């Protein structure tokens, strides 16, 4: 695949087509199966960054195959949000990186966005078997919205849906692909690996995975009008199971958040999904705080 390095010009200045966001996580990328590959302190993190960047570029290429005039935004959506290699990203795309930022994994999305693609995504905590399954972070054991368990796939799809934006593609392991199909009829999926457990998979060769991703991204963007946004009507009752009891102690300092259902569960009511999503993002940040 050609590398399109930056020239310093605005990469969206000549875009006349649809605005497309590609949200890129790492756990669902082909060839990745272990936390030591997905964490900056891990021995194989550099390789994982390169694999993640290559899959992001495959998705960008597919979008532009279908819509040469598209305005393409790529959101680094893993961990620190500083994993994708900026100098290797297709120059035709705009890269959103760093945190904290509005709307987390969906950085760059707004009501002008025509479609979103999830690349390298994974199944929710407690589901599977799924490679590196979790929900937002290890601090959250489960998130239930009106009694329905939602992981990163569901939470991000519903946030996009709140803005009227459909999820038209997801790539990841077979479990992640099955999860999104339950939520979004008509979504296209690319299973780049078959989950054998939390830290094991049988995967496609990375080049094969990228070829399939590019081809399917083009199909997804071309057929975006066929997919309806995954929109949930509010108000919402949200329950979050937290991994650490002291995180609950911090969470109940948020106005409207109360203990419920046990020592590690909190609940709150949100007027709409945008509000629910933002509180969940705040709970994730509170979960990173360790006792002094």
Specify the structural class.
Answer: alpha/beta
Q: What percentage of the residues does DSSP assign to strands (E)? A: 15-25%
Distance between the termini: 49 Å
Summarize the main sheet. 7 strands, mixed
Could you state the order of secondary-structure elements as H and E?
A: EHHEEEEEHEHEEHEHEEH
Low-confidence stretches: 1-8
Radius of gyration (Å): 18 Å
Kindly report the average pLDDT value.
Answer: 94
- Give the count of helical stretches: 7
What is the structure about, briefly put?
With 292 residues, the chain is α/β, with parallel strands linked by helices.
Describe this structure in words.
- InterPro entries: DppA_N (IPR027476), Peptidase_M55 (IPR007035), Peptidase_M55_sf (IPR036177).
- This is M55 family metallopeptidase.
- It comes from Streptomyces albidoflavus.
- There is one protein chain.
- By secondary structure, the chain is α/β, with parallel strands linked by helices.
- Helices cover 29% and strands 23% of the residues.
- It has seven helices and twelve strands.
- Strands 3-2-1-4-7-8-9 form a seven-stranded mixed beta sheet, with helices on both faces.
- A hairpin with a 2-residue loop joins strand 8 (188-197) and strand 9.
- The protein is globular.
- The termini are far apart.
Write the layout of secondary structure elements.
Layout: E1 19-24, H1 35-38, H2 45-66, E2 71-76, E3 93-96, E4 115-121, E5 140-145, E6 148-149, H3 152-162, E7 167-173, H4 174-183, E8 188-197, E9 200-203, H5 206-222, E10 236-242, H6 245-251, E11 258-259, E12 265-270, H7 273-286
Parallel strand pairs: 1-2, 1-4, 2-3, 4-7, 7-8
Antiparallel strand pairs: 5-6, 5-10, 8-9, 10-12, 11-12
Helix pairs in contact: 2-5
């Amino acid at each position: 695949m050609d590398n399109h390095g930056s020239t310093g010009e605005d990469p969206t200045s000549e875009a006349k087509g649809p605005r497309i966001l590609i949200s890129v996580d790492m756990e669902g990328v082909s060839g990745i199966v272990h936390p030591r590959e997905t964490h900056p302190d891990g021995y194989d993190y550099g390789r994982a960054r390169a694999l993640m960047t290559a899959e992001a570029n495959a998705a960008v290429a597919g979008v532009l195959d279908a819509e040469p005039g598209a305005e393409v935004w790529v959101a680094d959506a893993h961990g620190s949000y500083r994993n994708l290699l900026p100098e290797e990203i297709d120059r035709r795309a705009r890269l959103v990186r760093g945190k904290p930022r509005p709307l987390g994994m969906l950085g760059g999305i707004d009501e002008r966005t025509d479609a979103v693609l999830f690349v390298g995504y994974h199944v929710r905590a407690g589901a599977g078997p799924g490679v590196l399954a979790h929900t937002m972070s290890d601090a959250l054991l489960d998130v239930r919205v009106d009694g329905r368990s939602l992981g990163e796939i569901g939470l991000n799809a519903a946030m996009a849906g709140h803005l009227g934006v459909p999820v038209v593609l997801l790539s990841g392991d077979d479990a992640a692909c099955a999860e999104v199909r339950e939520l979004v009829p008509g979504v296209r999926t690319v299973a780049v690996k078959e989950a054998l457990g939390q830290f094991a998979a049988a995967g496609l060769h990375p080049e094969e995975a990228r070829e399939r991703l590019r081809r399917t991204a083009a199909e997804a963007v071309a057929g975006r009008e066929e997919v309806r946004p995954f929109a949930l009507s509010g108000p919402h009752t949200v329950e979050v199971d937290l991994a650490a009891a002291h995180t609950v102690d911090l969470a109940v300092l948020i106005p409207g958040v109360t203990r419920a259902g046990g020592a590690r569960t909190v609940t709150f009511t949100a007027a709409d999904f945008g509000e629910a999503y933002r509180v969940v993002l705040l709970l994730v940040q509170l979960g990173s705080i360790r006792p002094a």
